[in-house]
Amino acid sequence: MSIVIRTLSERVFEVLRERIVTGSIQGEQAIRQDALAAELGVSKIPLREALARLEQDGLLTSHANRGYFVQPMSASQADEIYELRLRIEPRAAAQACERASESEQATARKAFERLDAIADANLAESALGNRVYHASLVRPCGRLLTTQLVERLLILSERYVIAHLQPAGRGSRAHKEHLEMLEAWLARDAKAVERMVETHTRATHDDLMQQLDGAQ
Fold it and tell me: What is the pLDDT of residues 9-25, one digit of tens each?
C-alpha cells in the first residue's frame, strides 16, 4: 500500500511541477486540493505529499488555513537565484572536471546528448534537460553541500530557463555554449570551464533581468 501511495505521489508531483514551471498554474494562484484530487483521480494523501515536496523545492508556499499557493516569478527572485549560481556553480564545475571519473564523464556526455535530442521538444522538457546537464557538471566536485546547493538553485531556475528560451535564437546560443562547456570539461580544462560557466550563467541572468523588468 505504501509503495502505491509513493508512486502516486511521485506522479502527482511530476504533473503539478510541469504545470507550475510551464505557467499552466499561475503565480500566486491557490491550489484547490479537492478539485485537483478529483481531476487526477487520487486521494488527498499522495496529493499532500506532492504539495509538500513542491513547497520544499520553492515552487509553492503554504499559509495557515489558506492552503498552498504558487510562488510567483519575479525579477528579484531571478536575480537572487542567478547571483547565487554565479557565486557557486562556475568554481564547482571547474573542480568537478578535474576530479571526474570516466563514468562521471560518460554521464555528462549522456546528459548533453539528451538535452540536444529534446532541444526542439516542449520547453518543460528542455528546462529539465538543462537542469540535469548542469548538475552533471557539478556532482563530481566531491563537495556534498555545494552540490546540494547548486541542485536546489537549478530546480528554482527551471521556470526562468523556460522564460529565457522563449525568444527566438536563444536555444541555438545555449546549445553552442553547452557544447563548448562540455568539451572543456571533458578536457579537464578547469580555467576554461570556470570562465565558460560564468559567462553562460551571467548572460542568462542579464537577458532575464531585461526580460522580466520589461514585463513588470
Answer: 888 998 898 888 888 88
